Amino acid sequence: MSRVISTENAPAAIGPYVQAVDLGNMIITSGQIPVDPKTGEVPEDVTAQTRQSLANVKAIIEEAGLTVGDIVKTTVFVKDLNDFTTVNAAYEAFFTENQSGFPARSCVEVARLPKDVKIEIEAIAVRR
């Protein structure tokens, strides 16, 4: 049985999906775009968008009772792979600031993302 994870500290689902599911030993998030859950605003630059997407992932993982250190896999979708170095720097800073190791990761360029954002990030975390 899975349990739905939902928090006001991340953007609400805007379609037929949930923020995350808790499978008991594993949390799987939906992709998080860089929408500030308090204001509904999207930052302009890709660095701020990366940080906001990761903050949204963190809020969901924490709602499930886990920490950033429990994230074992992320998938990063970017609109422009030319932003890879910039995204990578913000991503590295986030995991370093949260005092966790780096999870496995895939990063792919996509044609378009919801709300025409520059990045979307999903995660898998494991309850140890």
TrEMBL record:
InterPro entries membership: RidA, RidA_CS, RutC-like_sf, YjgF/YER057c/UK114
Record Pfam families: Ribonuc_L-PSP
Alphabetized PROSITE patterns for the sequence: UPF0076
UniProt similarity note: Belongs to the RutC family.
Name the UniProt record assigns to this protein: 2-iminobutanoate/2-iminopropanoate deaminase
